[in-house]
Amino acid sequence: MGLKNLLTTHIGAADSHTLNHYKSVGGYESQKKALSEMTAEQIVNDVKNSGLRGRGGAGFPTGNKWGFIPKTDKPKYLICNGDEGEPGTFKDRLLLEKLPHMLIEGMVIAAKAIDSHQGYIYIRGEFHKGIRVVEEAVEEAYKAGLLGENIMGLGYNFDLAVYSGAGAYICGEESALINSLEGRRGHPRLKPPFPAVSGLYACPTVVNNVETFCNVPHIIRMTGEEYKKIGTEKSPGTRLFAVSGHVKKPGIYEVEMGTPMKELIYDICGGIKNDKTLKAVIPGGSSSPILTAEEAMTATMDYESIASLKSMLGSGAVIILSEVADLVETTYRLAEFYSHESCGQCTPCREGTHWVKDLLHKIKNGEGTEKDVELIFSLSRNMEGGTTICPLADACVMAVRPTMTKFKGEFSARLKKEVSVSH
């Protein structure tokens, strides 16, 4: 366990983003193998056998997702979700800027797997450098015959376009992203139907994130069975973690799944900044419930371990909080984010996130009461569990309620002391 370079083996090279460098280290060999030696079913089965799970949030098995695409005459679309907007998350941006050809190769292989001939890379609008680098890489790939008609002379056609978002967090949700691609308002859609049946332009569609696609060339090169030997039985492979907060060496680290969180924090990241005491860890972006220091020291960086602690790996953002962290302020900031980013389509989310944010503002300023705390918990119950079209309201609840429960003392200390009046 620990650090393991798979995706990031050659990322340190100054020209890692160029076609020449990528091909010099074996780039596009997996694409050639997939297009010339493998059927669509064999590609899907290889990815299923690898156990690869989505690297964007829920960790859904990638091969299963591809297998849901129906065999119809309708066009099939392939979309890369590069709308990385979860607070604390910045690992996909690195891949976009440093390894765009790995992403392109992974998408071409996935395209054959689902019989798609048109793909889109949807990138967060603020990633100006990433957008430019990926556009240049796509242009390089077209000129080299790695995209377009008769790719590599092997008879497969696949076109790829880069689309810039407009900075809406909600467009990281796959159906809102699809609406945005169609030129509509970025509102999530009711499911079913799921995108695999009716996605972009009401056609079968697969949406995976950047890191997920970047794993595909490695799986094809080494076979799914060999890939599955990395990591744990149910969480195979490596994972990029964006570590931030109160650590001595924040940054992006590729580690083998199943690595102890203690090793990630203290060995790989050098320990807590200024040698303070660890207070808490947010293990997978702001929507993953917070872990206490005691829980963090027992956790391993895989889906099952974090789920057993009633949290999730989510977007791969590990936020370290030391004893100096003000968790009331932190929780308010996150609630403010979700209130701002709610698309407003569903009443429990539109109104709930707004009220949670305002009540936490009162508590933060020492003006809140126990009734305000009770109201936050009451609102939370009405915001979660399928009351909205997408999980943004649930994300707000997961960012707020566990922190208020596990660190109750910090919130109680900020409440306004009620003065009893005797007559």
UniProtKB/TrEMBL annotation:
NADH-ubiquinone oxidoreductase 51kDa subunit iron-sulphur binding domain: residues covered: 328-373
GO MF term set: 4 iron, 4 sulfur cluster binding; FMN binding; metal ion binding; NAD binding; NADH dehydrogenase (ubiquinone) activity; oxidoreductase activity; quinone binding
Keywords, in A-Z order: 4Fe-4S, Flavoprotein, FMN, Iron, Iron-sulfur, Metal-binding, NAD, Oxidoreductase, Quinone, Translocase
Record-linked PROSITE patterns: COMPLEX1_51K_1 (PS00644), COMPLEX1_51K_2 (PS00645)
EC number: 7.1.1.-
Reaction it catalyzes: a quinone + NADH + 5 H(+)(in) = a quinol + NAD(+) + 4 H(+)(out)
Pfam assignment, any one: Complex1_51K
Annotated InterPro entries: NADH-UbQ_OxRdtase_51kDa_CS, NADH-UbQ_OxRdtase_suF, Nuo51_FMN-bd, Nuo51_FMN-bd_sf, Nuop51_4Fe4S-bd, Nuop51_4Fe4S-bd_sf, SLBB_dom
Requisite cofactors: [4Fe-4S] cluster; FMN
Function: NDH-1 shuttles electrons from NADH, via FMN and iron-sulfur (Fe-S) centers, to quinones in the respiratory chain.
NCBIfam families the record matches: nuoF_fam, PRK13596.1
Family: Belongs to the complex I 51 kDa subunit family.
Name of the protein this chain belongs to: NADH-quinone oxidoreductase subunit F
Gene name per UniProt: nuoF
